[in-house]
Amino acid sequence: MIDIHSHILPHIDDGSRYILKSVEDAKKAAREGITHMVLTPHHGVGSYRNTRGKILDATRRLHMRLHSERVPVKVLAGQQPLIFENMIQGLENGELCTLADRGQYLLIDLPKNSIPTFAADELLTLQQHGIIGACSTRKEQGDSK
After folding, report:
1. Which domain does 66 fall in, by range?
2. Beta-carbon neighbour count of residue 59 at 10 Å?
3. 123 lies in a domain?
4. Is 144 a domain residue?
């Protein structure tokens, strides 16, 4: 089973705060049958500026730690950027990271209370460039919906 939306990269967004917690979360995922996890830290939300290069580096470090502890979960880079105009430029300049860094799917964060007027055009532009946008909505801390 593949988890395509996880926040276990340490010190990078609102997910794991420490590497030990990241390892613990990966072990728990493995016990639940997860074999692969796409790590999707926030980008462009509040103070989170997690560019592709930063994510790739952090993913490599976590992969090495999980491997050394024999955790049977493969971690893959990804990202969850808040939607913005001209996202294609963000992909071209290396700011954005697609799921598993494969250049096909992009997990896009939408604001909690409204969808920007440019969202449909932005998703169409991505699609015209061969990128499929998968959208999620922002939740406030503690929201269960």
Report:
1. 2-137
2. 22
3. yes
4. no
What confidence tens digit (pLDDT) does each residue in 98-145 have?
999 999 999 999 998 889 999 999 999 999 999 999 998 766 554 443
d(CA 124, CA 138): 21
Q: Which of 18, 114, 103 is nearest to 61 (CA)?
A: 18
**What CA–CA distance (Å, rounded) separates 25 from 33?**
13
Please name the amino acid found at residue 41. Answer: P
Cα–Cα dist 133/3, whole Å? 17
How many domains does the chain divide into? 1
Calpha distance 110→95 (Å, rounded): 18
Whole-model pTM: value is: 0.90
Q: What's the full length of the chain, in residues?
A: 145
Structure tokens at 8: 């276990």
Q: Is residue 49 part of a domain?
A: yes
